[in-house]
Amino acid sequence: SEEGCFTVLKLFEHVLESDPLIDEVGFIHPSQFNLLDEEAGSSSVYQNELQPNNETSRKFWNQDHKLGISTDILVQLCKDAKHVFLLAFEEYKRHGNACNESQIENFSCSPGTPEIEVMRHSQAVLLLSSDFGTAWNARKLILSKKDQLSAFTEELRLSGLILSNSPKSESTWSHRRWIIKMISQRFSTPQVIITKESELVESIGERSKMNYRAWYHRCWLVSYMAIEQVIQELNKSKRWAGLHVADSSCFHYRRRLMLKILESLYVKGGNAYDKSEARKIWKEELDWNKELVERYVGREALWLHRRFLSLNWIIYFACNDSDVSPEPGESIIMNEEIAIFIDNEIHLLESSMTVPDTKFEDFQAQALHAGVYMLWLTKKMPELWRMVEEKLGTEKVKCVLSTIAQERPSLLHHLVNV
Question: Is the keyword Transit peptide in the record (predicted)?
Fold first, then answer.
């Protein structure tokens, strides 16, 4: 019945209010409630108060700050939550007039202000439908009038709870960025919040593979990091990246951190980062990347990362000893250090082009990625092409081009100047 449906919504909101430390939410098939009871060792199921305690009346499961919602009520519960939220939001926009019980029908108003009602009902809606933009905008409208840091940290907690069930929700990640901007503008940005945000993305990355929205959020956080925190993040994320070599998002994050280091080299005054330290970090990243390339054969993400490392190594460390940032398109002047570096890269190309007589496609992929990498590097710096020809010889150069032509002819046409 309609009255019963709204009762379930009130019960849902009661569960949320009774356990403010809930840190994970999920949707559960009704048949799984008994199994959860057995694993927990006790019954932690909320029943509809209007129905007897039986299997069909089970709606919610809550224990150890974990909340399960029965899948058989999701559609109606979400519909009712949106309906009540929209009515409450209309009341709020009318400057908090008294609640109109005839409009809300069987869902009686709690003895709270329209603002409280909007926040309560929008929370219920977003836990069921995380990309409902009107609810997020309503919360922004109310939070923008707050001047307590606790209100924004609580909002981070709620959005984190929503991400536990919807880790790829673009609206939720966007809302977190809005919260951090507000905190930064009004209270300054506590570095502990940035650290926790970075850790949140990493933990979500473990459960939600190839989560580009989460990693984009982590890259966005870099702009709020001091250089010391950037170095810490590089060290902390290294192990994770080494265990997830096929996930390009993590390496993209490392590139963003390293770009922050490059930016800090040309800061005026005493805040500039020491170039010798930056050079050491870059060299260690290059060596580590080479180890991964040789250990994990055929992983394109590693070769893409090497493009970034090699080009910036040559521009910023091998051929530019001044304190002035290099101009875009500035000609590369070949020197001994560049020659040694390119010679080592050619040796890496030669070893990667060796395809054993096996059925594993990874070796063919390794040869392709190596060839594309070297061709890309010479396209960025035409001065290197003659060196590649001299080191490899005409036949091996033809072999490299042939490998690319067989697998990616359009790419070869794009990279080679006919």
Answer: no
